[in-house]
Amino acid sequence: xxxxxxSSSKPLEGAGFxxxxxxxxxxxxxxxxxxxxxxxxxxxxxxxxxxxxxTETAEAEETEEEAAAEGPVFEASDRRAKIVADxxxxxxxxxxxxxxxxxxxxxxxxxxxxxxxxxxxxTVHTPDRRWYPIEIEAAARADFKKWEEQLDxxxxxxxxxxx
Length: 163
Fold this sequence. Notes:
Layout: H1 42-70, E1 74-77, E2 81-86, E3 89-94, E4 97-101, E5 108-112, E6 119-125, E7 131-137, H2 142-158
Antiparallel strand pairs: 1-2, 2-3, 3-4, 5-6, 6-7
């Protein structure tokens, strides 16, 4: 009688095992091999990228200030998560992960305050039946009402205009 050593089940495939399984979840792979450029050319490129990163950061801050001057802005954050809703759309960030939704990409925005605890949940729904929740820890439960009023003002100002 023959016996096989090891598992007879096939390996699972999917987003739980391979993040590249979902298109757009990971950064696109460039067509050029990594060692295409000589090592001497990397140092000036790194300096140029650092300088351009500083200018991009300054430009991003200027555009955020301009957007804030145009109309209502909602911003809430804790030690890990942050949400900003303004004229450009809704931006969510959790640790180093970030996503941005323009007002034309948003189907609905839902808020939920827990009965107990201090974690305020905001969920952005897209028209293609996907949702993106984020939880913000409030300093006090009184912040929930203030945050909901500020978010409603932003949604009233910008969400209806896109229709």
